[in-house]
Amino acid sequence: MKYKGILFDLDGTLLDTTELIVKSFQHTFRVHYNRDITPADVHPFFGQTLRAAMEHLGPDKVEELIATYRDYNITHHDRLTTAFTGVVEVLQELYNAGAAMAIVTSKTQGTALRGLRLFDLDKYFTAVIGVEQCQKHKPDPEPVLTAIKELGLTAADCLMVGDSPHDIISAKRAGAHTAAVRWTQVPWRSIIAEKPDYILNTMEDLFFICEISRPK
């Protein structure tokens, strides 16, 4: 196996929460500003912490915005969360092949675990690094380095898979290898500008990248 450890972002990489995130933002800004925002307004903030997004979009009401967003998001989480095609099967095969895996996300650890448990995926991950596990957040390398430490590996042994420039930058700064998923909602040009080592058109591409025999 080429990489002993595989780190994954969660939203937009393994789980499709686009509708959930967009609707959570839209609800929040209707409540506090009576203002409509579009998916295009929200997509550039994918991969950032919720606080960072709110500080940009509504700096005068950050705490209120976060509280309203989280309340709506949790209420509708399970109904509006799905796993991307191939995720369940590929994670199982990577686990069976002996890959150590971790989640590195900008959401809270509890919410991340809730999403993973919806599809019985939590059993595959040694570590789930959420926003509260780190002082600094992506694109800083701290979250990736924290996950690598939890796996007991070196950065050179690890591949980070994500859907935003922040994932790629964070992993590169940590010294890990990088892969960008093509099903991202983040503007593709911004991701390619960070020069990921690999591009995934499907989850199954990880078998080739990690040099694992594809199941028949």
TrEMBL record:
GO terms for biological process: DNA repair. GO terms for molecular function: phosphoglycolate phosphatase activity. GO terms for cellular component: cytosol. Pfam families: HAD_2 (PF13419). It comes from the Bacteria. InterPro entries: HAD-like_hydrolase_sf (IPR050155), HAD-like_sf (IPR036412), HAD-SF_hydro_IA (IPR006439), HAD_2 (IPR041492), HAD_sf (IPR023214), PGP-like_dom2 (IPR023198). This is Pyrophosphatase PpaX. It comes from Sporolituus thermophilus DSM 23256.
